[in-house]
Design a protein that fits this description.
Number of strands: 15
Strand content: 15-25%
Structural class: alpha/beta
Largest sheet: 8 strands, mixed
Number of helices: 11
Radius of gyration: 23 Å
Length: 385
């Protein structure tokens, strides 16, 4: 007990000594020594402390931090103090287990992403397929930065207000990265940018145009924000030389307010997809639903009908996985056999393809969607089964 007491006092002394040094306040005589032990330092940022280890910021999920652009953001999108969802982990079933990311292809892809300052949805959304996709040499590039202006309750992307910031070199960097990776198919997505007048549509179109200029044989799929339903912004992107236009419905109508940011909307997404199809009828349109949030089979079928009424050609169905304890909990783990049945339901409704499986994400094996074989998964089961 005495040893514990003095260790605690020593830790407190070190902590306050470091705070004094960082704030520019020197320790007063008699206030105790300024220790130089190798412990994390703390820097005050707004209302939270961000730990630093060897100069690298360590931000916990749900905490605010200061970005390189000088604005604050919330790590993984949802403020931990505002989360009303119970903590605790639910054991995952065996069909959701994936190997640890590794391999030469994975290493090469990571180096390429870092070299060209690219953000990928693979990293920012904590995608379980990152090891498989990167090892195959494919990635989904996330445009317009790593900070989203919205805070959907399923999404792990950081939330904040970039205040109009955009990387002017991003179109050229994205095009060069696609060239180096020798990609024949690239999926572009982005954060929502409600801070921009056009939601970032012009920047999005510039990235698509640059990629096509450098890589004319590469097919481009654009998974865009909803641009707050702005038809002009949708047309700006659709007029760029892309091949597939996507906007995710995410969940069924009843659960939309609970799952998505208040600025998003079930009808708004359907309208955006319909506007894209009407403006360029020859373009393929695509959407996605997460399952396991509490929806019923009847609601899934109804969402499929709504998507088909809006002219959507391709649909992906995957299991919702809770990224952090601050996000919505999983209501249930959908069995692979159910995914097979939902795929059949979708095909019966006229979708060109329904990619369905527990680990399927909107951009998962997107280049294989037109093979009409569930991108090689077989009946909706994941490859590992």
């Amino acid at each position: 007990m005495p040893g514990f007491f003095w260790r605690k006092k020593l830790r407190r002394a070190r902590f306050f000594a470091y705070r004094q040094r960082l704030s520019g306040v020197s320790a007063k005589k008699g206030s105790g020594p300024v220790f130089r032990a190798k412990i994390p330092t703390f820097i005050r940022l707004d209302t939270v402390f961000v730990a630093r280890f060897k100069g690298i910021p360590i931000v916990k999920s749900g905490e605010k931090y200061l970005t390189a652009g000088g604005f604050t953001a919330i790590k993984n999108g949802i403020n931990k103090n505002r989360s009303k969802h119970p903590a605790g982990r639910v054991p995952k079933p065996p069909w959701l287990r994936v190997p640890v990311p590794s391999g030469t292809g994975y290493t090469r892809m990571r180096q390429n992403v870092e070299s060209y300052r690219l953000a990928t949805v693979c990293q920012e959304s904590i995608c379980p397929n990152i090891g498989e996709c990167w090892d195959r040499g494919t990635a989904t590039i996330m445009l317009m930065g790593r900070v989203c202006t919205r805070a959907c309750r399923f999404c792990a992307v950081d939330t904040g207000n970039p205040a109009g910031w955009l990387d002017p070199d991003e179109p050229d960097n994205a095009a060069e990265s696609v060239r180096i990776m020798d990609l024949k198919y690239i999926v572009l997505t982005s954060v929502d940018r409600d801070d921009l007048d056009d939601g970032g549509a012009a920047h999005y179109a510039a990235c698509i145009t640059a990629i096509k200029r450098v890589n004319p044989q590469t097919a481009v799929e654009a998974l865009t924000p909803d641009f707050q339903g702005n038809p002009a912004a949708v047309r700006t992107v659709v007029d760029a030389p892309l091949d597939v236009y996507a906007q995710n419905l995410e969940t069924v109508h009843r659960l939309t307010k609970r799952v998505r940011d208040p600025r998003a909307g079930y009808r708004q997404t359907l309208d955006v997809l319909e506007q894209a199809k009407m403006h360029r009828p020859e373009i393929l349109t695509k959407s996605s639903l997460m399952l396991g949030l509490g929806e019923t089979e009847q609601e899934i079928a109804s969402a499929m009908d709504d998507l088909r009424s809006s002219g959507v050609d391709l649909l992906t169905l995957g299991q919702y996985l809770r990224p952090t304890e601050n996000h919505l909990p999983v209501d249930r783990f959908v069995h692979p056999d159910e995914f097979s049945r939902y795929r059949k339901l979708g095909l019966e409704r006229g979708f060109i393809e329904v990619v369905s499986g527990p680990l399927v994400r909107s951009s998962y094996r997107a280049e294989r969607a037109l093979e009409k074989n569930n991108v090689g998964l077989g009946g909706g089961n994941v490859a590992a089964l």
